[in-house]
Amino acid sequence: MRFLIPIFIVIPALEIMLLLYSGKLIGGIPTFLLIIATGILGAYLAKKQGLAIIQKAQRQMSHGEIPSEAIVDGICILLGGLLLLTPGFITDTAGFLLLFPGTRKFVKPLLLKWLRRFFQTRSRVTIIR
Question: In 3D, which of 73, 66, 82 has the Cα closest to residue 7?
Fold first, then answer.
């Protein structure tokens, strides 16, 4: 719940402010084209990397391994692609950070920590009921 206010109020307000500033600085049409370009690039990168991760997970499963790292990479790629499809410079920056393997390696431990905490909390709630 504590993440809902920043996600639904603060970040969109900052995005609007940056889009207006960008429109004033470089013009409305270049800003619009930049937003469209990042959306197209994000969809392309997410598709390309997503297919590579699926193949990696299939290889790991065919060798009897659990594709845990591939699953976390897949979650990062999905979130990065969604963020890049959302108009705005803040979400585009976060999306590119999740899509590029070099920066994704810094995000993955945080995501794993959050997922562990999320599932541990959910399992305790289920046990109590």
Answer: 82
Helix (H) or strand (E) holding 43: helix 28-62
Which residue pairs, CB below 8 angstroms and at least 24 apart, start in 118-121? none
Alpha carbon separation from 90 to 57, 85, 97 (Å, rounded) = 30, 12, 11
Instruction: Report the length, in residues, of the chain.
Output: 129
Task: Judge whether 117 lies within some domain.
Answer: yes
What is the four-CA torsion angle of 43, 62, 103, 7, rounded to 10 degrees? 60
Q: Which domain holds residue 70?
A: 39-128
What tens digit of pLDDT does each residue of 84-116 get?
Answer: 988 899 999 999 999 988 998 898 888 888 888
Q: How many domains does the chain have?
A: 1
Does some domain include residue 32? no
Cα 99 to Cα 25, 79, 119, distances in angstroms: 28, 9, 24
Question: Does residue 23 lie within any of the structural domains?
Answer: no
Write down the pTM of the prediction.
0.80
Domain membership of residue 25 (yes or no) is no
29-33 LR contacts (CB < 8 Å, sep 24+): none
